[in-house]
């Protein structure tokens, strides 16, 4: 068979291929933008989602901002301010580090990043709306605003895989809830199609949990706060009565990252075995912390799985901690802030 000669792919195509993995739907765009804002130290976040995020996603933060000279780099693949060396990677504390989110999103949308830093006299915006990147002075508050328009307009094949605007919006909202539960000191305002949809004011951790997961409030949950030499598990678990027919109140974080991990879910499930009917899902918000050497959270940019070095020990310990919390009489008001 005749085959074409080998050639290097153009950069835009490489980004579009990466975009298929990193930002496969509007909710993944929201996740990347919110993670960037948190990495920049934001304490206030405004999120606007129009048309299920397909029409428009806007995330405005009051974080450190991006200097005008760095704006072109911010939207370039493999350019990051978060790691420089392999050893940085091994102890990475930021949510991002690959330097490909903004470039990937831009390759499948019309994106504008406006930003001002504390020292600057005014802000700047970079946009690909005219087809090429253009940086201009712009009036904007300190912090960064990223606006993403017409997601996947250039990749109709990808667009076909999206669900209804309603479904895509609720996926976006799920992501926001996950991030808000882990960041109670940040205030969040969410607009849907121009109307205020949700507001989570900066608060302590239990107020945030009960604000988002009402079913866990009013004595319907127990605090978790256990520590060994190298593992720490904190958070709250719902009493069996708070369990639901759906697993939409299950939030597990490993070293600050939201995960959906079979092993961890199984450990929790096993602890509830004797007190919960098999078709019910326990409610929980749990933060597991362990040394970076014991866990690999960098399996894949968009996936929420982790790998433990000693998975058997983690499973046993998590199960044991939850079992003893379920049988203790401590009240959730004694809860100390998580993380
Ligand atoms: P990564 O987060 O992996 O570094 P991104 O493509 O998401 O890659 O972002 C590229 C760079 O742009 C970041 O390293 C950061 O320096 C800058 N940046 C992106 N978003 C923000 C933001 N909201 N506030 C401040 N800087 C940002
Ligand atoms: Mg990022």
From TrEMBL:
DNA mismatch repair protein S5 domain ranges (all copies): 209-327
Signal peptide span: none
Keywords: DNA damage, DNA repair
Record carries keyword Cell membrane: no
Stated family: Belongs to the DNA mismatch repair MutL/HexB family.
Function: This protein is involved in the repair of mismatches in DNA. It is required for dam-dependent methyl-directed DNA mismatch repair. May act as a 'molecular matchmaker', a protein that promotes the formation of a stable complex between two or more DNA-binding proteins in an ATP-dependent manner without itself being part of a final effector complex.
Protein name as catalogued: DNA mismatch repair protein MutL
Organism annotation: Limnobacter litoralis
Gene that produces this protein: mutL
